[in-house]
Amino acid sequence: MQLGMIGLGRMGNGMTERLREHDHDVKTYDPNVDARTASSLEELKSQLDAPRAFWLMIPAGKITEDAFQELLRIADKGDTVVDGGNSNFRDSQRRYAEAQAKGIHFVDVGVSGGIWGLRVGFCLMAGGDEEPVKRLEPIFTALAPEDGYAHCGPSGAGHFVKMVHNGIEYGLMQSYAEGFEVMDHSEFDLDLEQISGIWRYGSVVRSWLLELLHDAFDQHGSKLDDIAPYVEDSGEGRWTIHEAMAENVPVPVIAASLFARFSSRDEVGFASRVTAALRNQFGGHAIKEASRSK
Question: Is the pLDDT of residue 267 over 70?
Answer without folding.
Answer: no
